[in-house]
Amino acid sequence: MVNGQTINLVRDKDGQLKVADKNQLRLLRTRLTMVFQHFNLWSHMTVLENVMEAPIQVLGLSKQEARERAVKYLAKVGIDERAQGKYPVHLSGGQQQRVSIARALAMEPEVLLFDEPTSALDPELVGEVLRIMQQLAEEGKTMVVVTHEMGFARHVSTHVISSIRGK
């Protein structure tokens, strides 16, 4: 259930769950965004273009609206104007992950999904990403986070579910 709307799931021919209705899937994609452990930024696009793309393609925003939104969320995660014209390869892992978070935030989702957001980072860069996530939690943003950072999870979460060996 997302924002009071039940999402109907069915099994495909391989037994995998999928959203039953394509319109529901489209709506779901506008309400949930994902931050991946390996950033998944488009290498052929600048930082700014990476953050603008989904709001243009999925939400139908104009380039100007998407640019304003991208600049806003890049600033929120500490990516300054000089870095916005760079390509991902020229950024540190921490900067790339912050761009990934800005890209997710630019969709203004109801729920942010994080898949091991700090696992691909050097230890000294983990803190900057965790600080941003803590700020989002303090702002009341709903997040589902898969992490090994259990101290962080306990500190910022209202609910913690632990899995040991998949159970």
TrEMBL record:
Keyword Transferase assigned to the entry: answer is: no
One GO CC annotation = plasma membrane
The terms under GO molecular function for this entry are: ATP binding; ATP hydrolysis activity
Tell me the superkingdom of the source: Bacteria
Q: Which PROSITE patterns does the protein's record reference?
A: ABC_TRANSPORTER_1, ABC_TRANSPORTER_2
Q: Sorted alphabetically, which keywords does the UniProt record give? A: ATP-binding, Nucleotide-binding, Transport
InterPro entries reported for this sequence? ABC_transporter-like_ATP-bd, ABC_transporter-like_CS, MetN_ABC_transporter-like, P-loop_NTPase
Q: Where is the ABC transporter domain?
A: 2-167
Q: Where in the cell is it found?
A: Cell inner membrane
Q: Where would you say this protein principally sits, based on its record?
A: membrane
State the membrane topology: Peripheral membrane protein
What protein does this entry describe?
Histidine/lysine/arginine/ornithine transporter subunit
Q: Which organism is it from?
A: Escherichia coli
